[in-house]
């Protein structure tokens, strides 16, 4: 068992320290707490970077189609609508994750300030997760419909009007795939880290 694992065991059980009953220093316990908090926040930050890159790609594709079909008011209106649909999500994503990054446990020195930092990260992550779950009920169906329409408009002769069955099947399959991916994403990057951070905060009150 590593020293870090031994210290975790000491903290959790109150057993003697790793060196034959040697007292565990507060600095060691703070280091453990920082590591545990940072590990959970890093899982959420992985989502942040992946989501930000995906949204930049979406904005880039919509801009490309907007310019390519210059003068086609219908296509351009849909491209603008798609960008406006994603914009609130992007703004909230940047604000909340900036707040989470500023409250990094690595910047906290004492126990009280460390707990405050973890609490801020927990609150920021929970607030964004609540917004995400609610907004995606609007974002995913509309953006999927927009994507299907544009794909059929650009690459399928006749577009959606002449291929309604194919467009509907494509839409439903894309919606199911998105739902599965989002459910897995929420569990991995939000529900599990939030549960671990909540457990960590509870240990401060023991």
From TrEMBL:
Keyword Transmembrane: yes
Annotated keywords: Membrane, Transmembrane, Transmembrane helix
Highest taxon listed in the record's lineage: Bacteria
Membrane-spanning intervals of the chain: 46-67, 73-94, 135-156, 162-182
UniProt entry tagged with the keyword Membrane: yes
Name of the protein described by the UniProt record: Uncharacterized protein
Organism annotation: Hymenobacter wooponensis
Organism lineage string: Bacteria, Pseudomonadati, Bacteroidota, Cytophagia, Cytophagales
